[in-house]
């Protein structure tokens, strides 16, 4: 029996990963850059044993269906191949996110599972290799191996596509990200399907590709010079561009809901009042507001008034993956 357990934190991209150039290997079209956060994380235990006849996957104490288990099985196969074993496994995963947050946890989930497998099978993978493995589970998971600011190098093959920390002289410690949890009833388009549809059909996608490198350069400059305004403006612009591409897809779609627009507008109003803060969004209606700690209370106050206390969650920069057992 081989057993391992790890914890990984979620990350939010400031420069988005949007589109794959290789679906099987999850090689992205562009580099992305994220901030790992402390408020949401996943703890995952994996046990490989000859007493199991099939892989099983428990998420938050609930046995998962065939579809979810298959995804985990395929991911486990990568590690079984690396270790040269064929043992089946039990995966027990706990998401530490507020209930009904509507937050995707695939990044922290698959990063934690990668760390647990590495420990269980004593593979001795270093963090860069672990990042490559995590990438195969869910692209953004490769960034959750590291804490703070993290860049995912798109690379050109399995070996060259991984994330690495971005030197920042602890700039991230000055920052907070306020999550506005917006639950809408709409059936969402998964990030996987959304990306595919956009790459294949959106006439705006080339515009995304043409400008994302420039955005990345600016954002890295902002980190280097600890320029919060440049950081926020670049993040906000990049996120809006990503969401713009979905409007020209066929069929068109959007992740925005009326409450997302309400939150974006509130951010703009706060700026007009002299409070520097900026928003970004991912493949869902939640809005994330980046602010310096010095202005955090004003942002929290505004959003708890506009929404409810339960819908506003504050995160700070978080650490990289941790092995628990
Ligand atoms: O790794 P995935 O399949 O969950 O895709 C993440 C896509 C975005 O959240 C929209 C952007 C990003 O870089 O995290």
TrEMBL record:
Its EC number is 4.1.1.33. Residues 179-314 form the Mvd1 C-terminal domain. The keyword DNA damage does not apply. Pfam families: MDD_C, MVD-like_N. SUPFAM superfamilies: GHMP Kinase, C-terminal domain, Ribosomal protein S5 domain 2-like. GO terms for molecular function: ATP binding; diphosphomevalonate decarboxylase activity. GO terms for cellular component: cytosol. Residues 8-163 form the Diphosphomevalonate decarboxylase-like N-terminal domain. InterPro entries: GHMP_kinase_C_sf (IPR036554), Mev_decarb (IPR005935), Mev_diP_decarb (IPR029765), MVD-like_N (IPR053859), Mvd1_C (IPR041431), Ribosomal_Su5_D2-typ_SF (IPR020568), Ribsml_uS5_D2-typ_fold_subgr (IPR014721). It is an enzyme of class 4 (lyase). GO terms for biological process: isopentenyl diphosphate biosynthetic process, mevalonate pathway. Keywords: ATP-binding, Lipid biosynthesis, Lipid metabolism, Lyase, Nucleotide-binding. Belongs to the diphosphomevalonate decarboxylase family. This is diphosphomevalonate decarboxylase. It comes from Enterococcus lactis.
